[in-house]
Amino acid sequence: MGALAIVAGAPLLLGAADPAAWTRAQAPFPIAGPITYVGSEGIAAYLIKTPAGAILIDGTLAENAGMIGRNIVAAGVRLRDVKLILVTHAHFDHAAGVAALKRATGARVVAGVGDVRALETGIPPGETNYGVIRFPAVTVDRGVRDRDTVTLANVTLTARATPGHTPGCTTWTMRIPARPRALDVVFPCSVSVAGNRLIGNRAYPGILGDYRRSIAMLGTLHADIVLPSHPELADVIARGRRRAAGDATAFVDPALLPGIVAKAKAGFDADLAKQAR
Fold first, then answer.
1. Does some domain include residue 12?
2. For 22-32, what is the mean pLDDT?
3. Does 107 score more than 90 pLDDT?
4. Which part of the chain is the Metallo-beta-lactamase domain (predicted)?
5. How many folded domains does the chain comprise?
6. Mean pLDDT of the residues in the chain
7. What is the pTM of this model?
8. What secondary structure does DSSP assign to 108-156, as a single string?
């Protein structure tokens, strides 16, 4: 569909307030099976190749859309062959680039039903202590609920609703055929509080219960490989270097997700106690 154009004009919290790594270029690298990292150094985007095209998870910042497009091509996939863009949640640092990438690829956008309105208006949901950070609006082609599946050729991803961080926060899971056994992959949506108002959130009154249920549900998942939206949570970049150096199992770490969930729960409890005071 032609060259990738970046949409400007939406007010974003960029510059000194955000880590430089969020917009720092990162060369794409293979992770496991059909999965390739195509995001920036500080915010993740994942490409999943299939015989019928590719699936992209998240678009990161609007400023990163061009880089992600180049990374997709460098990974051996034409932009027009990206058929689906899955969104983990409707915050500017993960969804702002989706509109430009949808135009460049013609892909269908899939997101949790609770975030559809936010994505289509460019206004994030809920109330936070840092105000409203808008992002380019994008049409959502399909809203998914817990345990809905998305299939392209031989790859199926399952949506697990993990609301709290946003109402439609969606964790995606898939399985990679491998020997001696298949590998379970989890792309967890964030369960960090990250400035969300937990008490008296008029725009999202059910936020407390959603967080608690989502943290508990994530704790029940088995993950051989964990690929979060913020790569530092799972040392994704460092693991990529290890894999490039010949460690074929660099990303396999079944203890990683339980550790992430435990830290998230501790952080949630601390934030709730602080806000209650």
1. no
2. 97
3. yes
4. 42-230
5. 1
6. 93
7. 0.93
8. EEEEEGGGHHHHHHT---S-BTT----------SEEE-TT-EEEETTEE
